[in-house]
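in:
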């Protein structure tokens, strides 16, 4: 098996991001929603606040976790199947990643914290449309959709069918699903019969 390695960031940029992450993990910490995981981390001696559901990861804890982490992994979907062609992510990486105080957003992260409103923050609004994102497999630009012969809605439908074919049965009772289907059908008819 051939392994593709792409170097997008310089060693200095990688170190800048690493040090910024270490600072945030140590000072701002991580909010842990799982009571079980929070309990395990606190029991293990990781500094934290059980009431705030937050742990603070000192650089030594991060270094230990990184040493134990696998060096290579394969991207998979929620069912564990390998994801299709990663060319979209590769092309995004090849374009380069801007690493500076604005893109790291340290000031915004420390100011907003765990419970703040990120969506209306000036930093988020400023960077939202700057093409610094890598989109998942369902995001389809218009030209790609024309070439593929399927629009985003059709691709989303195909993805849903794929997930349903390979995933666990729905925990939603069948009668609830039937009522939703009936409601959708009724609303479609109402929309189609409206004048104008």
């Amino acid at each position: 098996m051939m392994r593709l390695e792409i170097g997008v960031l310089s060693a200095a940029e990688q170190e800048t991001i690493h040090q910024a992450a270490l600072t945030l993990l140590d000072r701002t910490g991580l909010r842990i929603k799982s009571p079980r995981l929070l309990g395990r981390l606190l029991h293990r001696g990781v500094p934290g606040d059980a009431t705030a559901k937050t742990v603070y990861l000192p650089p030594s804890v991060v270094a230990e976790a990184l040493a134990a982490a696998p060096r290579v992994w394969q991207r998979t979907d929620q069912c564990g199947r390998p994801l299709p062609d990663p060319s979209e992510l590769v092309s995004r990486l090849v374009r380069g990643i801007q690493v500076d105080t604005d893109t790291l957003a340290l000031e915004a992260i420390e100011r907003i914290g765990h419970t703040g409103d990120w969506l209306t923050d000036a930093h988020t609004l400023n960077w939202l449309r700057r093409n610094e994102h890598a989109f998942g497999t369902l995001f389809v630009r218009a030209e790609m959709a024309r070439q593929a012969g399927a629009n985003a809605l059709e691709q989303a439908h195909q993805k849903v069918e794929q997930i349903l074919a390979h995933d666990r049965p729905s925990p939603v009772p069948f009668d609830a699903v039937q009522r939703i289907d009936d409601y959708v059908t009724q609303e479609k008819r109402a929309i189609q019969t409206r004048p104008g």
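note: Strands lie at 30-31, 48-49, 54-55.
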